[in-house]
């Protein structure tokens, strides 16, 4: 991107449109989700807003222009994510499945694969969903490990012109689809004879072959349909293999670059809302004293530090998403910084803001607890910081010829 820290007129308009949609549809959705105990019913609450987002063209806006969509820049994506995630981060995660699941299709898909697998997400109606079936119940930080380690456990066994896929998957949003018969498109990380591979299954191939083992009841992001499933004898044409057998490790890691960068923006959204609650509290609450508590230096210092860290994370995340969506060679490093720094900063900042409010913050009816729960998810989703992301950064730092100035362009 050209270096500018002011939103363009088009980006200002996007911000306003996204905020209006969030206020009209996501504010009430988030409230309803908070009061629904059943995970399946919570997920279903999102469907009307999901359909309205599709009708408004937001889903098509997640698909790159060369593949028939209307996606803008990485900063555009950051603006949309921040506005929506400020009200309902779980809704954003649910609708954004194509941002991960279709990346390998864009990278190595044949023209026929692109036509088949992207088409559902160019629709002007309905509620199409995609899932990247990567994580497994026993953990997937070492999915690329070679035998005798387990690595990825899901298998794709050739049978004539088909693969027969069996295994268990977890954590990705909408693995069961809306009704238990699967999403419109599922990109499955599996072990084929040639090694770790990616095979795409469509809904008609998944229907009747998904066993929903468990619906997770999460502390936050509660509107996401987050499940543990079994894939039982899923028959998929060999033509649905993305790239070559054995190419799955590289393709999978590439698929999570953009999602890692986005976590920085999800973190900004949580901090933004938490800061607003704590700041308003500090402006109005005297707590028995003569002046609002913001008049005390200790309170003002916490707020000032929090605000600076929010702004730093926002700009870092803009840069990371711009790099990820533009194909910048340094995208991985930017994404790792946004993911790790952004998510861990959010936990620290919101915890500090809890200290400003005091015991009143330790109440489910006060918003800080909710935003802290959201922030606690961000270091462990989309590749946990310790198990995956810091290891990737370590690999970069120890790689031959690593240039510390390359990412910034200051070499």
Automatic annotation (TrEMBL):
Keyword check for Flavoprotein: yes
Example GO BP: butyrate catabolic process
Alphabetized UniProt keyword annotations: FAD, Flavoprotein
Domain Acyl-CoA dehydrogenase/oxidase N-terminal, residue spans: 8-122
Source taxon at top rank: Bacteria
Positions of the Acyl-CoA dehydrogenase/oxidase C-terminal domain: 246-385
Cofactors demanded by this protein: FAD
Stretches of the chain forming a coiled coil according to its record: none
InterPro entries according to UniProt: Acyl-CoA_Oxase/DH_mid-dom_sf (IPR046373), AcylCo_DH-like_C (IPR036250), AcylCo_DH/oxidase_C (IPR009075), AcylCoA_DH/ox_N (IPR013786), AcylCoA_DH/ox_N_sf (IPR037069), AcylCoA_DH/oxidase_NM_dom_sf (IPR009100)
One annotated GO molecular function: flavin adenine dinucleotide binding
Keyword Flavoprotein recorded: yes
UniProt cross-references to Pfam families, sorted A to Z: Acyl-CoA_dh_1, Acyl-CoA_dh_N
Family classification: Belongs to the acyl-CoA dehydrogenase family.
Name of this chain's protein: Butyryl-CoA dehydrogenase
Organism the protein comes from: Geodermatophilus tzadiensis
